[in-house]
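User: These chains co-purify. Model them together.
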Amino acid sequence: MRKYALILTFFILSLICVSCADSEEENKNFLGGYGEISAGAYSAGYSSAFFEDDVYIYYDMYKINKESGQFVRLCETAGCSHNTASCIEYQYRNRIFPGKDRIFYVNGKELYEIDTKGETTFIDVFETDKDGILLDESISIEKVLPLNSSCIFVFCSNGSCIYNLETKEKIYAYGFFCCGNENEIYYYDRDSEGIVKIDIDAWTSSHIENTKSIYPYICTDERLFCNTQAGAICYLNDEDKTEVCLAEEGMRYTLLGAKENKIYYLLSDIDLRSGEYTMCDLYYSLSDGMESVKADTGELSPDMICFFNEDKIYLLKTDSFLNVEQVYVYSLDDDSFVIYENSMESTDDFSMQFDSEEDTELDNTQDNLSEKKSYSMSTNFYKETVDPLTGNTVDVMQKTEPFIIDGSRLKTTFYYNVDVEGSYPEEGIINVFVMCDGIIQNSSVNGGEEKLINQVIYKDGQGMYADIEFELANSSGDRKIIIGYYLSDYIITDDFDIFGLYNEIINYQDFTFELADNYTLEEVETEEIYSEYSFDEIYTLEEGEQYNEIYELAAVSDKIPLGIQHDRWNIQIDEDGKLHIIFYSNPGQYNLYLLIDDEPVLINGENESILCEISGESDTVVYEIDANEIFHDKEKHSTKIMVYNRNTGEVKLYPDQIIQIKE
Amino acid sequence: MINLFFYELKKIFKTKGILISIVIIILCMLLNGINNAGLLNYLKPDVLTDATIQNVSKYNEKLFDELGETEYSDEKYEEMLLEYNSLYDGSETGIGAEKGKYGPTQAYDRYVYGLALDQMRYLKNFQSDISDVIINAEQSRENNKNLGKYRDDYKEKETTKAIQAYSEILNNTELKLCYVTSAYWYSFTESEGSNKFNTQLILFFICCIFSVYFATEYESRMSKMTYVTYKGRLSMFAVKNAVVFVISFLITLLSCLINIIVLTLHHGGMADALSQPVQLIFNNEPFAEFCPFNITFGQYMLLAFFMKFTAFYFASNIVVLMSVLFRKSLPSIAFSALSVIGILQLTLYAYQDNLGAYEIKSTSLYNVFQWLRTYSPISLLWSREYVSSFDVINLFGEPVYRLHFTLIFSWILILVLFVINSCLYCRRGEAHDIGIIGYFKKIWKKRSIA
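Assistant: Joint model of the two components:
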């Protein structure tokens, strides 16, 4: 009897175990969708790509239901913190990349191929740079680009290389603008400042002359097409010389991709200074005859992020926080066009939808808040950052009072606190500025003189109250106001043997509001935005060392925003006394300010900021300025650049360099 | 039967070996408690110079006493922010020289007030975080309805359950500040820090106690005597198992109480925190922000106690099984330690903290951890994992909380073990005296002779 009881118990237990085991649906893929995942569309500057299966289109942390157009989060587990190995987002977000007819999966420095069920096959590990030195632990593969059926470009900081999947050979190349066909690969080499061509069969490389500032983008079987800084499209002819094929004054051409004998591009009449445009269309041209045909699409905008594969073009529209608003899908085969709109509402507006009929406390709040929109805000936020030199935490708290509009002048009060541990300067200078649509405004702090950058002294542990007032241009429409500050932290000791570059924090509050005839002020919530980066080296100068040498700093952010691979700047002085400002960043439009000793400098005599564009295939912009116009003495000066990203609304301050003109 | 029970209890406490094991277990628990309270830091030379930092929780408690049962509101938050700003006045360089209201200097005041402010900020963000979860669940449910032939009924039930659970929490949660130190929750989470080593020691000595308790009877040949008495079989086994139950319960109770007593003495009382919803417990990090159960922290502590007791009682039953199989102390201790601590080690190894990692260690290993968490009662020691998110499994097409399932399954296993153990204990024949090893040795000899 006991025996039978035991047998029965074991049987029940095994039944329970089996019933709980997840039955694997045959059709389910590793992204939680159904059907084969097709190798997706990519864009050179971004570490997310589009993928598609029978039911969904996937991008970043979203999946779009193709039938209903609904955007859903990739990880559908309620209450998931997205930081454990069981979370789909943690496993696959920014880790899968399209290849030609296959999908690559990245785990740290290891590269795998992944099939639809999620089974991985190891390919190789990328753990050294070109000199064989092991890369830092924190570096991982950020991006994989397909070049042809056997070669890929693996972007891995100093270990970036072109990799041959068949022979397992590597050619180290930094800079992710490269492309290829079955016979050749072209990439832009930063060191030699030009295009390098690789012959795949011989696996040898050769530099192509006179290709500075021309960035390879598409390589068909016949020729290589490139974007130019001036907004034109050119190609390399049979003699390896560049020839412009599509250019028009006042128009910008942006290459997207090529299929068969057609090349696809965006054409717009965007004005770089103001960011305004009246038209933006998708075109394709026959690569031999260059006859242009406009594709039948909806309204596009030049700041859309474009992803291309041989079947479809995905055009992504994001808001200033890089949240996806719309996805336009253009099918190359049948010339059809679909728009998916993200209707997921943010809880910042407290616009929640509950299934039950219960009335919640927050429903009332929602009603109140929905009336209070976009006139002024009082925000409090708290940020903890780590000083890269000492590893100590620096606590910063800021707050502003609501804006008061007095005629055409705006006033607010800004609180600032620093709780410092370690070697952070105990007393220093805070530089406060107000930016409106990317242009720094004349403002006064604490009733002082109106300046572009106002300086206030702070003491460790003391609260600082700054009354800010500025004039707003009297025109209607949305205005994006940013109040920013940064610390002047560099210290030069008397004997000049150390100067340190400290973690410079820039924090700001983004206000967007509409000018109307009758102003009403209410309190609303806003999101905090901050950008932060740290330095990975301290430069120590030996006595007698020349200050006008080149110091190139790589600023590596430990919170790399989507798509930003590297941000840095460089300043060089040549023998003729010309100052070269070189700015590296992702594609986009920027307002660039040059600050000498924390004062904005007039560029070329009149412009306070440089309006520049880094287009889809380049990563640098270079400006030449006469050094004598900027530096009027032979003293040491701190030189910084402040950059306003017109696409994302972010403001960044880049580390300073000490410049001294000796002759 | 009651007399028998007390007699058995007396027997256990009279055995020298068992007494030594119990004393060692109590010492381990004390060490655990002291370490959780951060008191061992006093021994580290670089901390000695700033030893008053260790008393921060006392200053913290003083502040929270003054704040009282502060409910969250935007005005209160603003007020606290202004108060925090004002605490900077007059402070010198370094850690501040002016006498503080809560701590020895103003710097400590600023620090503890910052902790209170952190908690306020967390309360502020809590509602939007939970409503984000609800919205995502709604979106997911809506999406599932639009999947046509791929529509999944189970998914719909799961998302509905999630929405109901989190909506209930959102509606019923009063946002209040309360004093809590993170040290308390480490005392209930066996998987973190030095708790790992201490737990293994405790389990090892449990193996020693119960192996000796059962095996001595066979080794001293008393089993033959008791077997032929009126209550020498199933009744005897039931009484012995009751003793095992009581001892496991006492060990669990001691381990929790010692932790609480040491922490309370050093960090102050936690009366406020006991009635606080578990989702709102915060000290530098949230304890279980996305817990789907509408329970208070006090109820969680009781639940964690019950889970710990289940794990220890299951381990004890494994030990009993080994004892009645082998009928000798040493092999019984060895094999039970191997199985119980082996399972624990496997769970520890499979449990990986992938937070902030650039590489994912292994998804298959994490799947092993998930499996163990469902079917292994020892994993109940990781009590926080069960309540920190919406964790359900598919049981015959219905979503069931993993916690509920594991608890029920564990007790079924314990019952099964009881039945098996009683069969083995009460069986007749040669194996009764000589144990399983001796039995197989004899068979082997017979075969060799044949």
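Residues 475 and 515 of chain A are 7 Å apart (CA to CA).
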